[in-house]
Amino acid sequence: GACTRLCFPGCSSISGPTSVSGPVGGSLSVRCSYEEWLRRYPKYWCKPTCFRKIVETKESDREVRNGRVSIRDHPANLTFTVTLEDLVEDDAGTYRCGVDTSWLGYTGEPTLTIKVSVTPGEL
User: Fold this and answer.
1) DSSP of 91-119, one letter per residue?
2) Minimal CB count within 10 Å: which of 49, 75, 102, 118?
3) CA–CA separation, 75 vs 6, rounded Å?
4) Is residue 5 part of a domain?
C-alpha cells in the first residue's frame, strides 16, 4: 500500500519474516535486516504499543539480554537477531523489531511487525 506517513529514506527500511514459530521449551530466532543509514541507531524488540522496549541495543553494546530474550546487532551485514529462549505459550503474540530513530524527529520509526507462534511441545 501507499506510504501515508512521512517518507524518509526507504519507508520500509526493515525487512524480515512476518511470522516465526517455536516449540514450548525451545527457542526461536528472528533476523531483521535494515538499510545502511540505520547502522548506527539502536535496534529493539518490543510488543506493541512498544511503550517499553523488551530489549534494545546501544552503539556501545551490540548484544543485550533481558531474561529469556536477547538481541544482537550485526552492523557488518546490516542485520540484527532477536532470540527468545525457553518459550512458553504466553510468548505468542505480535511483536515488532525496529530501529530507534526517535531523536531524528520522524513520526514513524522503521519497524517490522512479526507474529510469534508457540507450538505445544512433544509430551
Assistant:
1) G-EEEEEEE--GGGT-SS--EEEEEEEEE
2) 49
3) 26
4) no
* Cis amide prior to 49 (ω within 30 degrees): yes
Q: Is 117 exposed, middle or buried (0-12, 13-18, 19+ CB in 10 A)?
A: middle
Domain that includes residue 112, residue range: 14-119
Give the tens place of pLDDT for each residue, 85-117: 999 999 999 999 999 988 777 667 889 999 999
DSSP-assigned beta bridge partners for residue 90: none
1 inside domain: no
Q: How far apart are the first and last CA of the chain?
A: 43
C-alpha cell at 1: 500500500
